[in-house]
């Protein structure tokens, strides 16, 4: 009995591992195939424009509504401690550094995945149900080049463009609490905000946002193209793509941040 149970467990682990590796391989194939025809811009440019407009329309207002209270909350938590230590002017630096380094790319990626990525998955999944993907292949049209390539670039582009919105809105929320409520001078707030930042912080933030947008797009397209051909399958694909994207975004963010801090240690005031 013990050997039979052990064999069953080991067989289950092997099957799950093989399935996971197969999924990773399929995702990699779709991603590389999507980038392979990037040079042929004329075949996917207008779809790219439509996807950019759609993603910007569904994420720009929510990202502002999320960033304003988030910046105020960070300023509230940090400002109280800084006020007790007699360093209220350092609140602006803490707020803006946190926004630039971590909050901005994460917020843009999560909104791209939650609002835009779910729509991508449902759209491609609905096309899969109606056999439109198979019909495109019959007509010698590669569905990856026609559908995935513009979405990859659109999600990455819009994720990068959302970063300034998050920074400005979050800094405005922190400004309201730190300057209007606590009475810190605007000059001290913004001096503390820029004293800790360097150009590489912004460059790495934009790189993070681009990578996170790419991850959100490839997960959405993959789960939409491989979903079960039923309405229930599309719903499950939307749920799976969103959850997997969130997990990957947090994991990749940790890796990039660790490498960046090892290469460029943070400087003190």
Automatic annotation (TrEMBL):
On the tree of life, the source organism's domain of life is Bacteria
InterPro entries in the record: Permease_MalE
Record-annotated membrane-spanning stretches: 152-177, 197-223, 243-263
Keyword Protein transport among UniProt keywords? no
Mind listing the UniProt keywords for this protein, alphabetically? Answer: Membrane, Transmembrane, Transmembrane helix
Q: Cite a GO CC annotation.
A: ATP-binding cassette (ABC) transporter complex
For this UniProt entry, the molecular function terms from Gene Ontology, in alphabetical order, are: phospholipid transporter activity
What PANTHER family does the annotation carry? ABC TRANSPORTER PERMEASE PROTEIN-RELATED, PROTEIN TRIGALACTOSYLDIACYLGLYCEROL 1, CHLOROPLASTIC
The protein here is known as: Phospholipid/cholesterol/gamma-HCH transport system permease protein
Q: Origin organism of this chain?
A: Planomonospora venezuelensis
């Amino acid at each position: 009995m013990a050997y039979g149970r052990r064999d069953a467990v080991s067989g289950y682990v092997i099957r799950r591992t093989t399935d996971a590796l197969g999924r990773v391989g399929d995702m990699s194939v779709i991603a590389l195939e999507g980038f392979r025809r990037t040079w042929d811009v004329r075949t996917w440019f207008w779809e790219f424009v439509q996807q950019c407009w759609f993603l910007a329309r569904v994420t720009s207002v929510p990202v502002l509504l999320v960033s304003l209270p988030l910046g105020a909350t960070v300023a509230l938590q940090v400002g109280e401690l800084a006020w007790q230590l007699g360093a209220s002017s350092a609140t602006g630096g803490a707020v803006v550094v946190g926004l630039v380094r971590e909050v901005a790319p994460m917020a843009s990626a999560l909104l791209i995945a939650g609002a835009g990525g779910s729509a991508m998955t449902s759209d491609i999944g609905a096309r899969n149900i109606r056999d439109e993907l198979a019909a495109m292949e019959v007509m010698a049209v590669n569905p990856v080049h026609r559908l995935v390539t513009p979405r990859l670039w659109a999600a990455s582009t819009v994720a990068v463009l959302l970063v300034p919105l998050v920074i400005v809105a979050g800094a405005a929320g922190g400004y309201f609490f730190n300057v209007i409520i606590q009475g810190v001078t605007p000059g001290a707030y913004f001096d503390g905000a820029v004293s800790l930042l360097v150009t590489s912080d912004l460059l790495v933030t934009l790189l993070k946002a681009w990578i996170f947008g790419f991850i959100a797009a490839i997960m959405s397209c993959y789960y939409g193209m491989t979903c079960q051909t039923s309405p229930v399958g599309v719903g499950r694909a939307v749920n799976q793509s969103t959850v997997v994207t969130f997990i990957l975004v947090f994991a990749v963010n940790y890796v990039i941040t660790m490498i960046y801090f090892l290469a460029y240690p943070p400087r003190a005031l």
